[in-house]
Amino acid sequence: MFQSIGFLGTGQMGGALARAAVKGAQGARVLLANRTPAKAQALADQLGCQATDNQTVAAQCQLIFLGVKPQMMEGLLKSIAPVLAGRKDRFVLASMAAGLTARRIQELAGADYPVIRLMPNTPAEVGAGVIQFCGVDVEPGELKDFQTLLAPAGLVDQVDEGLIDAACALSGCGPAFCALLAEALADGAVACGLPRDKARRYAAQTMEGTAKLMRQTGAHPGAVKDAVCSPGGSTIQGVRVLEANGFRAAAIDAVIAAFEKTQALGKG
């Protein structure tokens, strides 16, 4: 198991993974660094770990999370490259930057360091996230330890790197799509007279319950839909309107658009 874990960047995603890591670290040392030191300190105080700076994380941690946006990655790695180059012990870099391959992270870091590439989503903050990951020059035991470390965040699944961008377009971008749908459903209920607070609660619970039903029963989404659509009933009329307005086509196109943008980020 990793004995020291560091986070370079404690924004929404970095902070969410830090929360999970503290739970899964089995007593390992966790260090937090952020461009705004006060932000790292505030999170460290909440989690009972240590706030520090980028150079200390780069010098001391066996697993180093690179929690910055793709366009900031080159600058971050350039700033810590001399520290990494001076290390004699083994360490692993973990990048969550959309579009940047593990090999690209190695290029930016200046050497063929072991790299784990991961794609988390925002529900990881409440232990209900999805995290896909893959490794380059990483030992099988390290990948297993990584999966155990982040298990408190939700579903942690190893995939081939060629699938990472597609996975990001689905589960990484998906919370925004789901939230948009929940908001629209709630708006519809408000239009029918339901109070706003109840409409939002009912929409969120309905989405959560439907997802749980599919996970636990293994039912195909179409079967779940069919089970609600009684002949001549209300639900099938709502489904008819959704189909007439291109609901499924729009959802498919949204994922494809997110996928294409993710790939463009890597090329940029």
Automatic annotation (TrEMBL):
Q: What is its EC number?
A: 1.5.1.2
Please name the source species.
Flintibacter faecis
Q: Reaction catalysed?
A: L-proline + NADP(+) = (S)-1-pyrroline-5-carboxylate + NADPH + 2 H(+); L-proline + NAD(+) = (S)-1-pyrroline-5-carboxylate + NADH + 2 H(+)
How is this protein named in the record?
Pyrroline-5-carboxylate reductase
Q: Which GO terms describe its molecular function?
A: pyrroline-5-carboxylate reductase activity
**Which amino acid positions bind NADPH, per UniProt?**
54
Protein family: Belongs to the pyrroline-5-carboxylate reductase family.
Known role = Catalyzes the reduction of 1-pyrroline-5-carboxylate (PCA) to L-proline.
Q: What class of enzyme is it?
A: oxidoreductase
**Residue sites binding NADP(+) per the record:** 8-13
